[in-house]
Amino acid sequence: MPNESKPRPLRLAAVLAWAAVLLMLTGTESLRHLLIHRELLFSFDPSPDFRAFFRWADIRTVHGEWLLVKLGHFLGFAALDLLLMAWLGSKLRALGLSLLFAVFTEVLQLFQHRDGRLYDVLIDVSGALAAALMVALFATLLKKNPAIPVSNEFNRFNNSQRR
Question: Where are the transmembrane segments (predicted)?
Answer without folding.
Answer: 66-87, 94-112, 118-142
